[in-house]
Specification:
The two termini are 32 Å apart. With 210 residues, this protein is of the alpha+beta class. Helix content is 46%, strand content 13%. The structure holds flavin-adenine dinucleotide.
Length: 210
């Protein structure tokens, strides 16, 4: 059994982040027929103006952003509630964790904050027992899609989430507040800080990174 950390990887190429503001500006200026005002530096201020006015539909014209999350299954259950996004999620039906490529073990991303050493040891005992049962059932010919009934909700699950800027903004609004799950807050605050560093005007006014 392996215990791992929350992580993410932004899959969208840098060049797409660079194009975002110009794509939004082109669509937005079409509404006002002010294309003649486009310059090499005009996009940022124009997009800031759209956001300030609540004209956020224009944000859908930027290239979609894809991110690979390395999170517990409990978080992927929450992510997939965001209906406008596209998902590709690690399958416990098809992934056989007894195989070498998975290290012949379960990988978990648990939330250990605030647990006493006694509680941590009790959990480790439970997870080791779960892993033994899972691996034994696979060895006895049970398929992963049935052996998965044993798996804990902190099982590591990789999920690719792709959606447009407007929807990411809504996801950050919901998933960085103090009401979001602590692990969700951790990973989404880091991602929001990352997005802000790439294209600040699109993400500065939503969510929190503190
Ligand atoms: C702190 C927190 C606690 C939660 N607890 C629970 C819980 O206990 N149980 C539970 O089941 N879920 C829970 N959720 C999930 C929540 O109910 C939503 O399913 C999830 O946050 C997705 O958000 P959403 O539905 O606003 O919009 P998304 O699906 O992300 O869609 C984005 C936006 O599109 C618009 N939209 C989408 N669909 C419609 C529609 N049909 N009609 C009108 N407008 C639409 C809305 O403006 C929406 O905000 C929780 C979420 C949070 C953030």
């Amino acid at each position: 059994m392996k215990v791992d950390e929350l992580d993410y990887t932004v899959l969208t190429p840098d060049v797409d982040f660079e194009r975002m503001l110009t794509c939004i500006e082109r669509a937005g200026r079409n509404c006002y027929k002010s294309e003649d005002k486009i310059t090499d530096e005009s996009a940022k201020a124009f997009v800031a103006m759209l956001i300030k006015r609540g004209h956020e539909a224009m944000l859908e014209h930027a290239p979609n952003i894809g991110t690979l999350f390395h999170v517990p299954r409990g978080l992927t259950h929450e992510f997939v509630r965001h209906r406008l996004a596209s998902f590709g999620q690690e399958s416990t039906r098809y992934c056989n964790y007894s195989k070498g490529k998975f290290g012949t073990e379960l990988t978990l991303i648990p939330m250990m904050d605030g647990l006493t050493s006694v509680q941590i040891e009790r959990r480790k005992d439970l997870w080791e027992a779960i892993e033994r049962v899972y691996l034994a059932e696979i060895d006895e010919g049970i398929k992963p899609q049935q052996a998965r009934d044993n798996l804990p909700i902190c099982l590591k699950s990789d999920i690719v989430i792709t959606t447009n800027v407007r929807h990411w903004r809504e996801i950050f609004r919901q998933r960085t507040t103090k009401f979001a799950h602590p692990q969700m807050q951790t990973v989404m605050k880091k991602l929001l800080a990352d997005f802000r560093s790439r294209v600040s005007v699109l993400f500065d006014d939503v969510g929190t990174v503190d």
